[in-house]
Amino acid sequence: MWRDGTDPGLGVVWLVSFLLLWWLPMCWLERPATVTESERPGIDGLRVTVQIPVYNEDPQALRACLESVLGQSRRVQRVRVVDDGSVDGATGAPLLYEAERALLLREAGRLGIKATWDRTPNRGKRWAQMHVLHEDDADVFVTLDSDSVLDEHAVAEGLKPFADPRVKSVAGLVVPLNVKTNLLTRLTAVLYLPFTRGLRSAQSVLGSVLINSGTLAFYRAEVVRKHAGVYERESFRGVPMQMNDDSMLTMYARLEGRTVHQPSAVCFTLVPDKARHYFRQQLRWMRGTTVRHLWWLRHMPVRSLAFWMPVVEYAHLVLALLVPVTVLFTPHLREQTGSLAWYTLILGCAMNYLVSLRLFAVRRTDETLGHQVLMFVLSPAAGLWRLIVLRPLYLYAMATCWRIGDWGTRTAVEVRVAPA
């Protein structure tokens, strides 16, 4: 208690809470990397391989993905598709994607791009990636999900940060493709903001992006090749790790140099449009993130951002649990529950609106300004969803983080491209 009888406890809690949001102002300092004329020959000379793992993908989505790779303004040298044993969910027969394979090989040949298409037994995404990358002699590897579509300049923009020899990996900007499908996909688009255009952007300003999105990421090839045989065999408590491949590759890169985000390298991806698929995906990500936090605490230098990010994350969780308990069990605070709840609601809405300003950082030709404004206005609903639904799910994921052996992926095609 202060001499005037007031209790500074909650004031300190609020101050700490705002300090934990250090990334919110910093993310606005991010600028896309550019290259000078003297650096241009080095960037143009990079040999680039795009690797696309495929498993039970919608054929139309896969076709759109392949066409976007072949249509890049900066042509790549190789496209390597690995089908990880896809099967038809209705019949159990192999799903071979014969038309899509023929399209890739035909069009790549016409453009002078080397293309390969392999089919392997189902072992998981990491094995599908390293099936070809362990022996590929490219300078840069691009990892791309099969349900994603590249902007035509994505590769050209994603290579620019490599003009700095210290940069070992580059995260692309991931934007939901099917944002208008239903309420869940609209909500997901807003929920992406704190990570894709907030925290990741702030980390990039410091040269320390901690988790690239596997949807689109660029790596110095030697970083990936160096860890072949180890990367695909990662385990936790004796269980093979079948998730968070992107954060593992990013950690390898961060241990060797700078890891950045290039907001002008844009990739559009299909997000879950059904609740069951959505919750499986979230649970998988949360469990993988929990394991990766433990890896950062164990392997990253104490002075690094990677070491302190889990500390910050867990401090946030503890505060979120302690504040309500403190209010309920402190008599003079309990009497002010209504006022405290009101102030918390106002501050929560304000913070959500500040984060959601990042909606306007990217303009889409398939999205009107009116739609963006509507999503901005409704953004506190995303904050409420995060608090009521995702926070308890995260706690459950932390408590069951050892269940990482099951990829939890689709047994059949789950998200399809809407007909034109």
TrEMBL record:
<keyword id="KW-1133">Transmembrane helix</keyword>
<keyword id="KW-1003">Cell membrane</keyword>
<comment type="similarity">
    <text>Belongs to the NodC/HAS family.</text>
</comment>
<dbReference type="InterPro" id="IPR029044">
    <property type="entry name" value="Nucleotide-diphossugar_trans"/>
</dbReference>
<keyword id="KW-0812">Transmembrane</keyword>
<comment type="pathway">
    <text>Glycan biosynthesis; hyaluronan biosynthesis.</text>
</comment>
<dbReference type="GO" id="GO:0016757">
    <property type="term" value="F:glycosyltransferase activity"/>
</dbReference>
<keyword id="KW-0808">Transferase</keyword>
<feature type="transmembrane region" description="Helical">
    <location>
        <begin position="373"/>
        <end position="394"/>
    </location>
</feature>
<dbReference type="Pfam" id="PF00535">
    <property type="entry name" value="Glycos_transf_2"/>
</dbReference>
<feature type="transmembrane region" description="Helical">
    <location>
        <begin position="305"/>
        <end position="329"/>
    </location>
</feature>
<keyword id="KW-0472">Membrane</keyword>
<feature type="transmembrane region" description="Helical">
    <location>
        <begin position="12"/>
        <end position="29"/>
    </location>
</feature>
<comment type="function">
    <text>Glycosaminoglycan synthesis. The hyaluronic acid capsule is involved in the pathogenicity of group A Streptococci; it may be the major virulence determinant.</text>
</comment>
<feature type="transmembrane region" description="Helical">
    <location>
        <begin position="341"/>
        <end position="361"/>
    </location>
</feature>
<dbReference type="InterPro" id="IPR001173">
    <property type="entry name" value="Glyco_trans_2-like"/>
</dbReference>
<keyword id="KW-0328">Glycosyltransferase</keyword>
<feature type="domain" description="Glycosyltransferase 2-like">
    <location>
        <begin position="50"/>
        <end position="226"/>
    </location>
</feature>
<protein>
    <recommendedName>
        <fullName>Hyaluronan synthase</fullName>
        <ecNumber>2.4.1.212</ecNumber>
    </recommendedName>
</protein>
